[in-house]
Amino acid sequence: MASIDLSKYSQRSVTYAKAKVDKSTSEGSSISKLLNTEIKLFEKKFNQKQKEWFYTELSLLLSAGVDIKSAFEIIEQETSIKKHQTLISGIKNDIISGRSIAEALQKHSKIFTNYECQSVKIGEETGKLGEVLNELGLYYTSAIKLRRQIIGTLTYPIIVISLAICIVYFMLSFVVPMFGDIFKQTGGQLPATTQFLINVSNKSSLIFYSLLSIVLGFLILHKTQSKKTWYRHYTSALFLKLPLFNNLIKKIYLARFCQSMRLLLGAKVLLIEALGLVKNMIAYYPIEHALDTVIKDVLAGKTLNESLSQHKIFPQKLTALIKVSEEVNAPELIFEKLSKQYSDEIEHQQAVVGKVIEPFFIIVLGLIIGFILVAMYMPLFQISNGF
To answer: In sequence order, which residues have a C-beta less than 8 Å from that of residue 209 and are 6 or more positions away?
Structure first.
């Protein structure tokens, strides 16, 4: 492992101290106060990417033999965002005052989840803090990767659908009316498809703005109701019925479930406690709802595999392997294998979905545009044949 040059850290400490003095001398200026005011609209949150970096760096420093105080000071100085510096400084000061790292993190419950705080607490109690912090870093690495896979899978169809809507709207609003004027001048009865397209063209603005209103309405509904139980229940049920996407979404959250269980059980967290923590952070209603019943069943004396097998969201292969792990008393190893297997399956299925979706949307877009062109040119063919 690469060594850490603490001399640089000392130099940075001096520079940082001078900067603080310089800053204090200029605080009397109203212009300086205005420039130093934080604009909340553009603040960067302490998101998953920041957590990945934070846990990985802290694990590296502690594993290299750096004490807690110095490790947090180094991380604080390496952070370029003022709000994040304030957060890390507050955690450091709480630790210096006698709190544990888990207690210091728990004070910021809106940023650090109970899952993270409990994992760090177990690491401190078992003397495996470096390992737990490293696992949390890996967890967020995997979470970021899964999120990018979802975005990558959905980006193409969203772009193609948006492009198709814009192209169809342009043709209905500008191209079709031009042909319509020509047909009116020639007289005669138009084919049914052409007349239908002209009628749709006359209402294209109404159709487009109605569609836009529906999309905006859904976005507002999602923004205001996304945390409500009824909304999460119906949206998750809808996504599980989508062809191609249903298995992919299901495997993404099963991979997260297995990874979380591996981390907690590997840190010797009690099974009931681990299930409760996973339920609170999994952010997927079908698994959360199932775990409510699973926790009650395990408390009543059932084995984990017996309880999980009663819920369709958990595949038979998963419950069978968990049964084996319970028999050999090595659940974290099975969850690790399952997590890796699901991650591999997600990558493969994402590639398959991408290959299927691309030609499908191209064909659909081609059919729509082809229908418009044929409907517009049919009267022209009739006119030319008449002559």
So the answer is: none
